[in-house]
Write a structure and sequence with these properties.
alpha/beta; six-stranded parallel β-sheet; 28 helices; 43% helix; globular
Length: 750
Amino acid sequence: MYDRRHPPVDKPRRRARPTWQHWGVTAATHSTLFPQVPETADAVLDGLDPEQREVALALSGPVCVLAGAGTGKTRALTHRIAYGVWAGVLQPSSVLAVTFTNRAAGEMRGRLRQLGAGGVQARTFHSAALRQLQFFWPKAVGGELPRLLERKIQLVSEAAARCRIRLDRNELRDVTSEIEWAKVTQTVPADYPAAVAKSVRDAPRDPAEISQLYALYEQLKRDRSVIDFEDVLLLTVGILQDRHDIADQIRRQYQHFVVDEYQDVSPLQQRLLDLWLGDRDNLCVVGDASQTIYSFTGATPDHLLNFRTRHPGATVVKLVRDYRSTPQVVHLANGLLSQARGRAAEHRLELISQRDPGPEPVYTEYTDEPTEAEGTARRVRDLIAAGVPAGEIAVLYRINAQSEVYEQALADAGVPYQLRGAERFFEREEVRKAGIALRGAARAGGNDSLLDDAEDLPAQVRAVLSTNGWTPRPPAGSGSVRDRWESLAALVRLAEDFARAKPGATLSDLVAELDERAAAQHAPTVQGVTLASLHAAKGLEWDAVFLVGLTEGMMPITYAKTDEQVEEERRLLYVGVTRARVHLTLSWALSRSPGGRPGRRPSRFLKGLRPGSGSLGAVGPGGTGSVERGGGGPVRRTARGPVRCRVCGATLTEAGAMKLMRCEDCPSDMDEALYERLRDWRSEQARELGQPAYCVFTDKTLMAIAERVPATDGELASISGVGARKLGRFGAEVLAICAGEEGGTGADEG
């Protein structure tokens, strides 16, 4: 059976005080799901390595923790807070821990609760500021706090219309991001052009136009009595600067501050932090300059790098023991940063893997992007067959637009997947309904006939959730049906872990645990391959990671012009590499579309790392590496030259357009009656297979078939989305329908 952990060593017969050398130390980012709450302050320190222990014991004055990827920074932070609480040095209600995402804050709250420090406030900057703003607004300003505008893009669009400035969807998004950047850097509309010039920032439009849009956007907000997320910070800063009585009240409440991911702090967030602190110095910050990847939002590592200058007496601890990744992955990550330049690179941390050796990273070159996606999907399927859980695999790309071709490839391969950035686990409809059902069964107790034959807690949960769609075996394919099943299966696994950790626990105890987890956004793991951008993957980790699309123009991205921008792209790739625990695959395609000119080059960041590209440590410690040539499936694409629209002749670049062989807005000659017959046939196939309809063929593939009306296997196979497997399984029936004959009798057993 596949096991991502090292096998534990034999435990001593009598309970010795654990040290970090014992198996008692867990991998930095792996903790027991339901650990026992410590009984003493010293027990909180059990299992910490020497550097983590040093962090936990530094409870006063300024503390700066420089923590590399996978070195257990969250573990060190939460154990430090918990130790302070157990030792009586810190009062839980007097500690404010801030980070940058709701997920990270939820994880921190969950860990603190498990360590017996549940009263500590762990929030994002915006959440903490909004809470204070809501409380003090009536006193400071009077009346109710203006309504919070959740999506500013609509107001920006209206401002553009009033200024008679035409913005397409992408420009609208970019201008909105520019306004956010201006606000977090405390730049007013009139100063925006000068600020852009000074920062060497590439504005998406003429800076004077953006300044005009920015000013009108602010005016529209005032007219409608709404505020945006950046205003939450700005208004809190304004109140704390003007009202010393309110600032003093907050400082009396919070005596000790902890800031995670300190390299991502913006000037506005730093200003708020300074106001919270006042003239005190009980501040602990944790960060890694080599993971600064959000400068486009105003984040800067300067506050982290200048911390010792601002606080000369600060305690500084470096965490470099990497518990997450194998030596092979760590070797590649260190090699990637060894080529970096700039101030952040001068402070890079050389990681030291604490894991046993694993497989070498795999470098794969493909002929085109669809072939790269299909090859990646095959490798993912092979890993799953070898025992790697689907939920422990990720495919990471530079921009979200790259996801479509991988969604299609994974669906074609029958691999379940989830897009990172989807709704939160506890807000999913099936999870909410499951919670209601479990709560009802807990209240009914022994009077619920569903539980008559359930001997233990997991059996009770399985019985209850069976009425909501859970089955012992997962449904075939992917899509919404599989997504719902995976959510329920995650609850079943959570119940099993809960019962093992707490023998004798009741259904009511589990419901209480779920309520606490929902409040902390501490979700269980859903089993499905993760598709995510490199930016969205920050803070996460998987057993197997596929870094795809690593070509010049995509990594680094085309618009990274300055040395500083290129170095941030290198750090982004470093973040991607360090997400992997064991298996790491890096791939690129020589052309975008099938048959296209193979003019692309692998990312410059791989030079000296991938075999055959130089002498900078191309292979891992003690291993040998090679660049594989990824081939296509049995059906060979024979097109030569770029794919062109069959209506207007334009070169096609978008996946959907290439599938249709025409521009999206070019006239369609689709046989509508044939399209409807194909849809009816697809619905029948999906029902028989128990899969979502798109797992048979997507709408775009059916449209392409109805437009081109193939008459032979070769013509059908030339349509994107019809691979060898689907050709063999459905080809005869589809061709029969295209010929005007009746469809087949159903899916075969192949």
